Structure formats: C-alpha cells, structure tokens
Amino acid sequence: MNTKTVVDNYTAYRWFFTSSNKLVVGGKSAEQNELVLKAFLKSDFPVMHTTKPGSGFMILLSDRWNREDLQEMASFCGCFSQQWKKVKKGEKISVDLFMGRQLYKTKTPYQAFQEKMRKE
After folding, report:
1. 4 to 24, 36, 91: CA distances (angstroms)
2. Residue 11 gets which letter from DSSP?
3. What is the pLDDT along the chain (120 residues), one digit of tens a residue?
4. Predicted TM-score of the model (pTM)
C-alpha cells in the first residue's frame, strides 16, 4: 500500500478530531504503528506513546496545537493502551510526548524495527 493511500484511509487506524478540529491518528498494533509513523509523521508534529510498552503511537497532524489538544491526545493514547486494562482505580497512566524529529529507527538483533527517541 503506498503512502498516499494510507493517508487517504486514516479511518483504518485509531483516530479522532480534537475539540479544536485537529486530526489525531494512531496505530492499533505494532504493524500499524509502523505504517502510521511512515505515512503521517512530520518533524514538527507531536507524537505520544505510553511510557510502558503496549500502546499505539499517536500523531497530531498539525504543527500548531494547544494544551487542550495535547491533553485530549494523551487521554486517547492512554485509553487504547494495554495499561488501561490493568490500571487500578485512581492510578494514572504515564504518556510520553515528543516531536516527530526525535524519532528514528534502529534494527534490533532480532531484525524487528523499534522506535527510539533521539535526545536533543
């Protein structure tokens, strides 16, 4: 599937519009995370992922956003994480925020791709 087809079909992924009408798209699986990052990621787009493994990479498709956009995006990311099912009442799920330019790919010894944060 080419990148244009993926972008045109964002509804194949987890997605929503923030209250300020910004589109957020994220993967439902490791394979979809890979496709979402390849198709939608730009250097100035904010990206979120839970601190612990087991969530989609969520990308806000805009380089202009506000605090409320990020709060809504963090809630969305946490709700669709593996932690959501395991968290006890009153506990919080930690979500990391970084920019698209901080992501790069490395191959692990097992030949699987893994997303890493680049320290700036």
Report:
1. 17, 12, 40
2. G
3. 444 554 568 888 999 999 999 999 999 888 888 889 888 999 999 999 887 777 889 999 999 999 999 999 999 998 888 777 777 777 788 888 989 988 876 655 443 444 455 444
4. 0.79
Backbone phi and psi for residue 52, each to the nearest 5 degrees, phi listed first:
-90, 150
Q: Where are the domains of the chain?
A: 3-117
C-beta of residue 35 within 8 angstroms of C-beta of residue 26: no
Question: CA distances (Å), 99 to each of 4, 5, 49, 60, in order?
Answer: 22, 24, 11, 10
d(CA 105, CA 117): 9
